[in-house]
Amino acid sequence: MALSYASGTSAVPLLGQTIGDNLEDTVRRFGEREALVVVHEGKRWTYTQLNDDVDRIARRLLAMGLQVGDRLGIWAPNCSAWTMVQYATAKLGVILVNINPAYRTHEVEYVLRQSGCRMLIAADAFKTSNYRAMIDEVRGSLPDLEHVLYIDTPEWNDWLDGQQAPEGELRERMAGLSFDDPINIQYTSGTTGFPKGATLTHHNILNNGFFVARGCNYTEQDRVCIPVPLYHCFGMVMGNLGCTTHGATMVYPAPSFDPLETLRAVQAERCTSLYGVPTMFIAQLTHPNFAEFDLASLRTGIMAGSPCPVETMKQTMSLMNMREVGICYGMTETSPVSTQTAADDTIEQRTGTVGRVHPHVEVKIVDPVTNRCVQRGESGELCTRGYSVMLGYWNDSEKTAEAVDAAGWMHTGDLAVMDDAGYINIVGRSKDMIIRGGENVYPREIEEFLYSHPDIVDVQVVGVPDAKYGEEVMAWVRLREGATPLGIDDVRAFCQGRIAHYKVPRYVHVVDEFPMTVTGKIQKYKLRDAAVVLLGLEDAAAIRTA
């Protein structure tokens, strides 16, 4: 038997460029092609126009005295200014600090202080978030923060019209940058403790965006609908950098994900590719107006961010015309993608795995205890190594050493299996694995089975404390509209004889929605916490009947 190790050999070399130099190469090749469409702003840019606006912002920041390595935070939903600032800071060697639009005062104060941001560019307000009021509340405790600027306000427009550094100074700054310089800090949404700032270089994210897009077979003819958040790698790397490395068009349907606006944008802008986490695709497929939209322009797309239900993947391919849709797997610390399915993979490979190792990347699966590589077909922790691995967590050498070992392997915390052909299946998070009476139970396996129930639209399986077995299986389910109530007896009857007895949920709880991050990832730890409360406050029989 072969070991669970694979390296992504490739005849296509890595890009040895900074992000700014790469953008300007694309402008020279595709200057008059459409680069960016922001539907909710009613605006569009060619590559030449985009680059001109990026330079305008870069020269304003240069005139303010921002130096290579200074940190600039951006705190806003998806908008054109976000993207302009992304590329402007890259041209200056200023490290962009992505701030989750859902953060509140405690979280934003921590991120700005921990990263030492010298400047913040923020939305004035969005939905229930009054960013200006929150910054006013915490600014006194942030001595490094010299400048705060609010997008789409009179002061923003005045700032854009202000003094610019000479063009020659921008050229000189760009010429002095290295592609190995840190250029981006993204804070991981830690489930316990404070988030950690994954520090990424030009080389990390430019190449990852390029190879993800290459895996989707992008050309300058493609138009990519990006409803995922820009503050996350999915938006700014796989979306923005994936497009600009190929001359493709970035399309933002709304400030944050909205299923109807996404469908409208795909139709109106004749998008060829659509991104999303599984919950986003489920929201579109189950939208009451779904059948009204012409999605014939779609060819491909990416489903990533969390385990992708097989049935959802199949519906996306058939009902949304995304015949070449792929799965990507990765994490912020790896820029983010380490594996990807290919357009010519079989349906089984594209629905049952996360693909094979990415170009110029290594992966291995190890025994979590001994750290030795396991045989193919055996489960263990997935590790990855290569150009994509972060420099480290910002100002946190201890946490960096826990995540990246002495040989340069990033330990993902995900449990996976590699088959003989090198395809990888993620079977769960090591911390999500349920140990019931000595049996290892992988929630993903039970979730995939329960997705086949005709009344279940979405399901999440977690472990809950149990005096007899240590842990028991609990399924949280969302039902299709109009479905009859579903109780534990119904679920057990559906499972009977089809999955092992120890995998059959002991508890079932029906909900209208799951707790999610702004990127659409379901927060299982919150479900576990809620389950403990339910079990402690209600009679178990009441829970079992949902």
TrEMBL record:
The keyword Ligase applies. Transmembrane segments: none annotated. It holds the Pfam family AMP-binding_C. Residues 445-521 form the AMP-binding enzyme C-terminal domain. One of its GO terms (biological process) is fatty acid metabolic process. Keywords: Ligase. InterPro entries: AMP-bd_C (IPR025110), AMP-bd_C_sf (IPR045851), AMP-binding_CS (IPR020845), AMP-dep_synth/lig_dom (IPR000873), ANL_N_sf (IPR042099). GO terms for molecular function: medium-chain fatty acid-CoA ligase activity. SUPFAM superfamilies: Acetyl-CoA synthetase-like. Residues 23-394 form the AMP-dependent synthetase/ligase domain. PANTHER family: ACYL-COA SYNTHETASE, MEDIUM-CHAIN ACYL-COA LIGASE ACSF2, MITOCHONDRIAL. Belongs to the ATP-dependent AMP-binding enzyme family. NCBIfam families: PRK12583.1 (NF009233). This is Unannotated protein. The lineage of its organism: unclassified sequences, metagenomes, ecological metagenomes.
